[in-house]
Amino acid sequence: MPDYTVYVLTPLSRMLAMLAGGLLLFGIGYLFYHNLLLSLLLVPGGAYAPRLLRDYLRQRRRSALNLQFKQTLFSLSSSLSAGRSVENAFREAVQDLRMLDPEGGSDMIFELNIICARMEYGQPVEEALQDFSRRAGMEDVERFADVFSVCKRTGGDLVEIVRRTSTIIGEKLDIQQDIAVSIAQKKFEAKALLASPLAMVLFMSLTAGDYMEPMYTGAGIAISTLALGGLFLCYLWTSKIMDIPL
């Protein structure tokens, strides 16, 4: 069963990420030093690229699963309000999500099919939900699974509880999406600011090579190293500022 808290890169993806990272660092090093040996010293930093790629793909997958879970909640609420049983509501949710994803390749459709298959074998739906919540590692899924389990055990009004829970979680997810959209522009601006010194150095190297020549010898190398270190610290700082947990 997939664990959505981790993302495992294929050996090919890992190798390509390291290669791309190494080439990028080599290019940056040569841009600042114009020295092959010093530029090669930066290449081992490309080993950090697979981690960046893995974290990005994991976050993208979890964000997509979060949105699909919201759509599933609205489908379950509508089906239960229409008088369908819990089992049929989950089967109907699969069909509703297939309307949004005709190929049926999304993680949420896969999980709903697993839940439906477990129900066919007689496993209680709340146990299947609890297993999904453990693998998802998402607070909203865990809360919904806990509420659903308590409701089934105590004989509460399942329709009303699912409807209200779906509404509350749906509103929370809407707020999270609004926050993500509002900081997307700031993330782009941060990336542009980080790239602008590189673009400036490249421009000066191409148009005023004689003017930049002192930066590639003697004290200029030390100044370039300090500039690269400051640029790296700015990258870490902006990444930490923009890393807002949702």
TrEMBL record:
Topological relation to the membrane, as annotated: Multi-pass membrane protein
Organism of this sequence: Paenibacillus borealis
Superkingdom: Bacteria
Main localisation: membrane
Keyword tags: Cell membrane, Membrane, Transmembrane, Transmembrane helix
Protein name according to UniProt: Pilus assembly protein TadB
Domain Type II secretion system protein GspF stretches: 75-204
Record field: transmembrane: 12-30, 192-209, 215-237
InterPro entries: T2SS_GspF_dom (IPR018076)
Localisation: Cell membrane
